[in-house]
Amino acid sequence: MIKTDVLIIGAGPAACAAAVYTLRAGLKTTMLGGANLGGQLLQTNDIENYPGFIDPISGFEIMDKMHKQCKRLGAEILGETVIKIEGAESPFRISAESGEQYEALSVIIATGAAARWLGVKGEGEYKGKGVSACATCDGFFFKGKEVAVIGGGNTAFEDALFLTNFCSKVYLVHRRDGFRADKLTVEKAKSNPKIEMLIPYVAEEIKGENGMVTCAVFKNVKDGSLKEIKVSGVFIAVGSIPQTGFLKDSGVNLSDGGYVKTDEKMSTSVKGIFAAGDCADEFYKQAIVAAGSGAKAAIEAISFVNLIK
Ligand code: NAP
Questions:
Q1: Which of 10, 64, 118, 128 is most buried, judged by most C-beta within 10 A?
Q2: Both 248 and 106 in a single domain?
Q3: pTM tops 0.90
Q4: Ligand 1 contact, 241 CB (< 6 A)
Q5: Which residues are within 8 A (CB) of 193 and not within 5 positions of it... i.e. 6 or more apart?
Q6: Cβ within 8 Å of residue 31, ≥6 positions away
Q7: Is 134 tagged catalytic?
Q8: What is the CATH number of the domain that holds 86?
Q9: Is 279 a catalytic residue?
Q10: What are the tens digits of pLDDT across the range 109-143?
Q11: Cβ 158 under 6 angstroms from ligand 1
């Protein structure tokens, strides 16, 4: 059993911001970041909306800086995946997938969100064989190839633009005329000669040969007609789902969409357990908002621990 003052579940912007505060308050802080240390930001190419960086910075670089900052202040960042939190009151018992057990006076849940999949025919079969939810990670493998990106948010548009660095053609497939992505990014994509918009279409099936994607079938939402397009890759960018499944039976209340319910002080339904970042944010899902909520959660966790310690 490893004992700590504050156990932070996650290692993304919310988790790192929280750790900076708890460490500077002199509390022993343990971060359990799961297998993908740094979360969704690792999959973002150019971040231009995080203050303090004059030029665009990659998600990988910004997370690397945050981790180094936490470590400099004394954080222990472990690649452990939490499977259970137990205890109606502090101290809480936390179980990791590895079998390791932790005991913490306070817990900050900052597990973020993971890619949402479409569930269409062929998607599961060709995952990693042409189907991907991470253009940053996999784009390089599609050099000179034609690919499709599905979605109408910032992720889809940024992925499409990023993929034009490698691919000969990128279809951006979206189910309706309006986009969630910001105007500037949409305009950039529209004026890129390698990007062709396919609207309003939804994916019907992803097909392949010899275990690799060769084409995708899209259905026109208005007239039901089908279009089969030869592509080697299909990038799914249709949003994310909060990573909160492990909180089942923990006493921490979740919304219908699976987000952790918090009050304005980032307190959950269990006293001493706080939540921050995308796992508790149905609306904003921005790195800067996650970091801000991480700081709020930490300030509350510090007060809580100092009262009971
Ligand atoms: P999002 O904004 O929720 O967009 C998801 C897109 O997928 C929507 O266009 C949605 O269509 C579409 N979609 C959802 N389910 C679908 C389905 N079953 N079939 C077809 N299409 C489907 O998600 P996101 O793009 O991942 O962005 C999440 C948040 O992160 C946003 O707040 C975004 O601004 C932010 N973000 C920011 C940056 C940046 O600032 N650099 C980069 C990436 C993301 P509808 O529009 O029709 O619902």
A1: 10
A2: yes
A3: no
A4: no
A5: none
A6: 7, 8, 9, 10, 11, 15, 16, 19, 70, 75, 76, 77, 78
A7: yes
A8: 3.50.50.60
A9: no
A10: 999 999 899 999 999 999 989 999 989 878 999 99
A11: yes
